[in-house]
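Lay summary. Proteins are chains of building blocks that fold into shapes, and those shapes determine what they do. In this project we predict the shape from the chain. Here is one chain we studied, written as its sequence of building blocks.
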Amino acid sequence: MMIEACYVPKCDGRLFSTGSLKETGYVESSDKNNTKLFLNGKLALMGHPRDNYGPVHWITAEIVHKYQHQAFSILKLDNSETWHNRMAHPSNKVLTHLKANVKGADSLKVTNTDTLCVGCIKGKMHDKSYPSSESRASHPLELIHADLMEFPTESYQREKWCLIVLDDYTSFATSYLLRHNRTLCSV
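And here is the predicted shape, written in a compact code that computers can read:
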């Protein structure tokens, strides 16, 4: 599941968040020359700026082959419906490959049931489209579109909410980061 995505034009590398590493126990030390990430007191990763004026630090890393890491079975479940629910609702075809991809898993007899999974049904539903409108604002600030959304985790500045505002006439858009949704009135 993708929680947050940013579009970076002409990006030729992969991005990752040091915040998510810090949530798992890494400690960051950073200045304008480098960013260091320590785990249990030992240096684990170090990044440097690609150029002298950029705030983004680059880490040279190698992509781990997907078959070098495998999941391990901790519980013997031979019920395909249970595996279906616990593994984010894969198809029966995917479940037939369980033994080949999970160490310790026994062969699973996939049962074709006539009952439909509620999660799968909801996942395949589409929202109704909003009716299209031909009316447009005739001058700035006549019609404003706004959306308030909550982030799954707080930012380093303890902001958890984002207000996006769009002027219909000028198509000017801006966003405000908020610590609480109750501070919306002050924006």
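What the prediction tells us: The helical segments are 18-23, 80-86, 92-95, 98-101, 118-124.
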